[in-house]
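Form 7-S
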Amino acid sequence: MIVLELNDVIHGHKSIREYENKEVSQELLDQILEAGIRASSSGNMQSYSIIVTRDKELKKKLYSAHMDQSMVIDAPILLTFCADFNRMRKWLELNDAPVHFDNFMSFMIGTIDATLVSQNCALAAENAGLGICYMGSTLANCDQIGELLNLPPNVVPVVGYSLGYPKESPSLRDRLPLNGLVHYDQYEDYSDEEILEIYKDRNEKGWNRYMDVPKLKEMTEKLGLENLAQIYSIAKYTKESHHQFSQTVLNYLERQNYMNNE
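Output:
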């Protein structure tokens, strides 16, 4: 197994969308999952579950729910991290303890737990020479994915990614500067000048990235977009789509028994 310096793993992260036709051994997968479950957890409740999907036919079904992203089929493994109070609630009942954790706060606790575990697994995987690509479709289409994964009440998919041996080595993506993200003691809101400075490199590099990919350039020109901010709010993350996905999540939380306010 390849072992890298932790700092190199963290600073070398890339989203991998193309994978070698090579299986990940169960031994290596177990090491990755063991690293995952060492993550911090609220009250040590470990209110999450991890779904490992290798089955090719199931991945084909998940392809649509994941918005037709090719790595869903091409990667040997999909990992889906779920907020899960189903297990905890059953344990409480078996021990004559009050059974609740069926509210929005519980969902948020499970979501944080699941996300922490997912990043531990991601670091362990990249440390072993594997690649990953997080997929926002996991939460956006949680209802479809939950049905395909046979999730019971109080279990909701929140984070997921493809996993396998990289077939590509894309360039590192830019990040906003530290001074644009970190606040000391209290939040200090930004002036217009500070916003423009924080996003200066992002505007240039992000725009150039779209212009370098023929398909993305064509989309941008067709929509008449003039800058990266317009790409984000008109093409990628529209108000209409976020409203739609928001309603999907809220409806699914109700269905999965996470909206009890009594």
